[in-house]
Write a structure and sequence with these properties.
Layout (H helix, E strand, L loop, with lengths): L1 H6 L7 H27 L4 E5 L3 H20 L19 E6 L9 H8 L3 E3 L4 E3 L2 E3 L5 E8 L4 E4 L16 E3 L5 H15 L6 H5 L35 H13 L3 E5 L6 H14 L4 E5 L2 H17 L7 E3 L16 H17 L9 H13 L3 H10 L2 E5 L7 H4 L7 E7 L6 H8 L2 E8 L10 H9 L4 H13 L10 E4 L3 H13 L4 E3 L17 E4 L1 H6 L10 E2 L7 H9 L11 H14 L4 H14 L4 H6 L3 H13 L2 H6 L12 H4 L3 H7 E3 L2 E2 L4 H11 L7 E2 L16 E5 L17 H18 L13 E7 L2 H15 L7 E4 L4 E7 L8 E7 L12 H8 L2 E9 L1 H4 L7 H7 L5 E2 L7
Parallel strand pairs: 9-14, 9-19, 10-12, 10-13, 11-12, 13-14, 15-17, 15-18, 16-17, 20-21, 22-27, 22-28, 23-25, 23-26, 26-27
Antiparallel strand pairs: 1-2, 1-8, 2-7, 3-6, 4-5, 6-7, 24-25
């Protein structure tokens, strides 16, 4: 069947060769997704929960009432009461989600998974023969969710383990949703085995001899432009000509168009223009992005224009939960809401006495019965087929009825993928299969795709036998090659082969090691004195207990109790260290961090060296895993490279010795005909854009300040628009509990700056026509621990103790968004207060992509809050951070002194 499909594909070269080549190119993706699905099935995300306070309960109920009122607002007064959907009246109990104790840096993805789930479990699953078994009696249905307050409404409260003890465990568990990964795998298999002719450009990405069609020029007259029209004086804003070039190329392309633009360069405006021009040509568009805000920004701009326009060119539909749509202007276009409204209006008409003629009575009865029994899918499909703009996130698009039910879907003329730097190739494929042409928009100097380290680790784990992996991990930890040398190890092994493998691995790294099973207990054992690794059977370790050195720190699970030896260690003040992560985990997190630092090669090198050092050195292991290094590199490229990066520079060879677009990017001339870069920014005051332009966009001619940029304001608290408050961390109290990733001194400084600004802003009108619009402030940090600390303070300052991310001050004159940097990509604010937290260690502050996002969110004022003296010293091991701290673009404190 596949051969017949490939015979009909244009532009792929000889079909036999293409069939073989593409299969080899897709194989790494297929293997990775298969393993990732299996790994996800073995995972059970865990969160803590508690009952809401009275204040939180009131806030949740108020939000529920507002939501119900919003849903009723579109209904006509004549709607019969028995059909009004008052979901808020159902029973259930609200609970608040929190990270487990000791897991303060729990990623946002875990909370999002719980908030979007249909049910939770009150007990962890049982594991048997590598499988998880979930007791259905422990399942609790989720009735509603509140994302802002991290709250779930459940049909009953979960029971608490050990409720009568001093350590009760209020935990809930989630069965991982593997549907997104399965959709990616299915899309890949469909492209590999049953590609239709319209998907030929996707197949060409993996072909070594593709033929790329030359786009036919497509020009627009001045009167046809909408968002990109000339200004009143007849001129074009800086960057508008580049935006126009992109639109005309996207209209003309037979396959791909790429728009690259730095922060604030007008990518959203260009997308809006393109959508309107496609609508004029009666084309259907599928708009997809990795975040809700990116999708809603485009849709909000389009609807704002269309409300004032005579022509109503766009009939949009927004797929996704209404509660995830922050924009009030976008919410009315939510698919579920429109279906609900339409269904009610039809039923109202059918219920009217004498509606229609008698000839159609039976048909009306059947229609009414169908609407009452149907779960809205028929109406939803009708609306989706009638819409010329369907919008969703890369996850939300999976809720499209046709995709959800694996039915045929009439392809869209164009897929527009925004924030493409955060979308992997396999994620892109899911919506890409439902389109004829593909427009990719983003900035590869911003954040990369989110990589689940657990999925990556599971894939890595399959590359090496467990005995060899453990031997390499312990030898690495004890060697001088490891950046974080954890110390010597005491290991118990059941077989002589395992012990011999550990000794071989240690000797290959020049790590002193001894196998006690090869020595006589009655004789001296000189190598034991300086050994970094001591291994033996459990019985032998018990026999040698009183001769073991006390400075062995790491243990594997097979080591017996050895009570006398442990007592000796305690008497000497030697603490047991936590056992190291598995070899696969050690490799996985370093792969992720190394990829984050790909634009920071000097600091990436240490991680690359550590990854090299983690590879097995024993000859026995190397003989059975000759391609381990290549497999690891292949896995990294598959899991972490975005579709935007693939089209521009490629994902790397992937073990393939011939160039393809997938491995090396689109050919030069093909890119020139399809790709456009936006060089001007319209967001930041020039003081704010100066450092990012020099550091992250140097040589590319990007992030230039637009001449029309107006960032005048009357707030005189700072002398310059980019300042740095040098805040040294407070010393930890002796014997006190560790604060984790929190910095109380920085939190104090940030709140002081926020309070001062809010006191000014409550009486300060904005410039321009919208003088009473609220001022927007972003309190950003790199760490969840600091976010939690700031949340408590913002709840106190605002009095909104139930809120977690959005707060208002002074009767709404100031809106404050609290966020981690990673979550704030795609957003902007008038004032950004950025807390670095770290002092003494770099953490992941040295990622150029992450730092670029952090420094480019502010419109009027950027305030950096961190230990500048440490970052500017030799004690800081990051060249990037030292360059940031020594930059003259960030004034000291209030900006009157030069740095």
């Amino acid at each position: 069947m596949a051969s017949h499909c490939y015979m009909s594909l244009p532009g792929i070269g000889k079909w036999e060769r293409a069939l073989s080549e593409t299969g080899a190119q897709w194989a790494p993706y297929r293997r990775y997704l298969t393993t990732a699905i299996k790994a996800a099935e073995q995972r059970s995300p865990i969160l803590a929960w508690r009952l809401p306070t009275e204040t939180e309960r009131c806030a949740i109920q108020q939000q529920a009432s507002r939501r119900a009122a919003s849903r009723q607002s579109s209904r006509k007064p004549a709607r019969r009461r028995d059909r009004i959907e008052l979901k808020e009246t159902i029973g259930g109990e609200w609970i608040i989600l929190e990270p487990r104790p000791g897991f303060e840096e729990e990623p946002d993805a875990t909370f999002e998974a719980f908030l979007e789930a249909r049910d939770i479990h009150e007990r962890e699953p049982q594991r048997s023969r590598g499988q998880l078994f979930w007791n259905p009696q422990n399942k609790i249905a989720i009735l509603a969710s509140d994302h802002e307050r991290l709250a779930l409404k459940v049909e009953r409260l979960p029971t608490i383990l050990n409720a009568d003890t001093e350590t009760p465990q209020a935990l809930i568990y989630l069965r991982t949703n593997t549907w997104p990964l399965e959709c990616q795998k299915n899309a890949l298999e469909q492209l590999e085995n049953l590609p239709s002719p319209r998907l030929a450009p996707l197949v060409r990405l993996a072909s070594t001899r593709p033929t790329w069609e030359t786009p036919k020029p497509r020009m627009l007259t001045e009167g046809e432009w909408v968002f990109l029209r000339r200004q009143v004086d007849g001129g074009l804003r800086d960057g508008t000509q580049e935006q126009r070039t992109f639109v005309t190329r996207a209209l003309a392309t037979p396959d791909y168009a790429v728009l690259e633009g730095p922060p604030g360069s007008g990518k959203t405006t260009a997308i809006c223009e393109l959508i309107l021009q496609l609508a004029r040509e009666d084309k259907r568009v599928l708009l997809v992005a990795s975040t809700h805000v990116a999708v809603d920004n485009v849709l909000e701009n389009l609807m704002s224009w269309q409300d004032q326009a005579e022509q109503k060119l766009v009939m949009p539909l927004r797929i996704g939960d209404e509660d995830n749509i922050a924009s009030a202007a976008v919410r009315p276009w939510a698919l579920n809401r429109l279906v609900r409204t339409c269904k009610g209006e039809i039923l109202d008409f059918l219920d009217k006495p004498g509606a229609g003629s008698a000839l159609g009575a039976n048909s009306r009865t059947l229609l009414g019965q169908a609407l009452r029994s149907d779960k809205q899918s028929a109406l939803a499909n009708m609306m989706l087929e009638a819409s010329n703009l369907v919008c969703a996130t890369t996850i939300g698009i999976l809720q499209h009825p046709s995709i959800k039910q694996s039915r045929h879907l009439e392809p869209f003329d164009v897929l527009i993928l925004d924030e493409a730097s955060k979308t992997t190739f396999s994620e892109f494929l899911v919506p890409a299969l439902f389109a004829r042409r593909w427009v990719i928009v983003g900035d590869r100097r911003q954040l990369s795709p989110f990589v689940d380290e657990t999925d990556l680790a599971e894939n890595v784990r399959n590359l090496l036998p467990s005995a060899a992996a453990n031997a390499a991990a312990y030898a690495f930890q004890a060697s001088e090659q490891g950046y974080r040398k954890r110390g010597s190890s005491l290991l118990a092994f059941g077989s002589a082969e395992q012990r011999q493998l550990q000794i071989e691995e240690a000797e290959a790294r020049a790590v002193p090691a001894v196998d006690l099973d090869t020595y006589d207990l009655a004789q001296p054992c000189v190598p034991l004195v300086g050994a970094q690794i001591v291994c033996a059977s459990a019985e032998t370790l018990c026999a040698w207990e009183h001769r073991l050195p006390g400075d062995l720190h790491l243990f594997n699970e097979a080591v017996p109790l050895l009570p006398d030896w442990q007592a000796h260690r305690r008497a000497c003040g030697i603490e047991n260290q936590q056992a190291p992560a598995s070899w696969a985990d050690e490799v996985a997190w370093r792969q992720v961090r190394a990829y984050e630092l790909r634009h920071n090669p000097s600091e990436q090198q240490r991680l690359l060296d550590e990854l090299q050092a983690l590879l097995p050195k024993a000859a026995t292991t190397q003989a059975v895993t000759p391609h381990l290094r290549e497999n690891l590199e292949q896995m990294r490229r598959v899991a972490m490279t975005s579709i935007l990066e693939i089209l521009q520079v490629g994902a790397g060879s992937l073990g393939w010795d011939k160039e393809t677009a997938l491995t090396h990017g689109l050919p030069g001339q093909v890119q020139e005909q399809r790709c456009v870069s936006l060089s001007f920014q319209h967001r930041m005051h020039p003081d704010i854009s100066a450092f990012p332009r020099e550091k992250f966009y140097a040589g590319g001619g990007l992030l230039n300040d637009a001449s029309s940029l107006d960032r005048h304001w009357t707030y005189q608290h700072y002398g310059r628009r980019a300042v740095w408050l040098d805040i040294a961390p407070r010393p930890e109290p002796r014997g006190g509990q560790s604060r984790g990733n929190r910095n109380l001194a920085e939190a104090d400084a940030l709140m002081d700056e926020l309070t001062a600004f809010a006191d000014w802003a409550k009486h300060a009108p904005r410039s321009g026509s919208n003088a009473q619009a609220p001022w927007k402030v972003a309190a950003l940090t790199f760490y969840k621990g600091q976010e939690h600390e700031l949340r408590k303070r913002l709840q106190t300052l605002s009095g909104q103790r139930a809120n977690t991310r959005h707060f208002t001050l002074h009767n709404g004159r100031v809106e404050v968004a609290l966020c981690t940097v990673d979550r704030f990509q795609g957003h902007e604010a008038d004032l950004v207060l950025l807390s670095f937290v770290k002092s003494g260690c770099v953490g992941f502050l040295n990622s150029p992509n992450r730092l670029n996002v952090a420094l480019t969110r502010a419109r009027f004022q950027l305030v950096l809050i961190g230990h500048r003296r440490w970052m500017d010293s030799e004690r800081c091991r990051s060249d990037l951070l030292r360059g940031l701290a020594s930059s003259p673009h960030y004034a000291k404190d209030f900006g009157w002194d030069n740095p």
